[in-house]
Amino acid sequence: MSLFRVACVQLRSGREPAANLVATEALVREAAGAGAAYVQTPEMTNLLVRSRAELMERIGREEDDAFLARLREVAAELGIFLHLGSLAILADDGRVANRAFVIAPDGSIAARYDKIHMFDVDLANGESWRESATYQPGETAVTVDLGPIVAGLAICYDVRFPHLFRAYAKAGAGLLTAPAAFTRQTGEAHWHLLQRTRAIENGAYVVTAAQGGRHEDGRETYGHSLIVDPWGKVLGEAAGDAPGMIVADIDPEMVATIRGRVPSLANERAFAAPGVPEGGSA
Ligand SMILES: NC(=O)CCC(=O)C(=O)O
Question: Which segments constitute the CN hydrolase domain (predicted)?
Fold first, then answer.
């Protein structure tokens, strides 16, 4: 049995990328110091700001982004896979990409993933989000080979779309990811259930680094970064919403073991879609 040590860095990113870089680098170093070969950071690692104008003032194109460039150097120095759960990056059409990067141990970019599902919701507590007004949604699911295990990339709200995770499992991913900036309200109700369900239904590890606490822009995120095994057992969890890091050892062979024991992937069948009953409504 050869174990692979993974880590989640939990952050409380604010509006200034330079300050967020200092906080991120320190915790990435701490995780690597604890022996992690793969370190994940949350959605919007480089900055969390609500105002579109403020966002546009502070971000750059991928090729000029100092935050990304510095963390590529750090990953190379530490010899780790560094998964930046997402950065806000200026896209070609003037909109913003909510883009994850997986940096390989040599500092090269092994994978990029743009968040597919936009968080356009109105919550009961009055919180209203319209990501599609600012962000350009991605169109493509992406896997990346981490050596001992293949990872499928997703971001935050994507975790509510089980067919994306199914597609990753069918493509051979044994580690599913959904780095997040979950709202406190939805986190309290749904966070653990969603992460554990994606693990159980796909017989895969789920690793999700989270933003946590009250941010400079006033928003509150849930925290509770999680590492879940293919049986749905929580291997590691951040105690609450404070910045910090967690590590756990994962056993890539457990993916095949669990998929053999409960072969729901292999037992899946196609079926005809149900008709909509006359006069039926949701
Ligand atoms: N940033 C996000 O995608 C938030 C998703 C979220 O909070 C949820 O409940 O889903």
Answer: 4-252
Q: Whose CA is nearest to atom 9 of ligand 1?
A: 186
pLDDT tens digits along 177-202: 999 999 999 999 999 999 999 999 99
ipTM of the complex: 0.99
Give the homologous superfamily in CATH for domain 4-262.
Carbon-nitrogen hydrolase (3.60.110.10)
* No. of helices (H) and no. of strands (E), the chain: 7, 16
CB environment 137-159: b (16+ within 10 A), e (fewer): ebeebbbbebebbbbbbbbbbbb
Residues of the chain predicted below pLDDT 70: 281-282
8, 25, 30, 43: the active-site residue: 43
Distance 225 CA to ligand 1 centre (A): 14
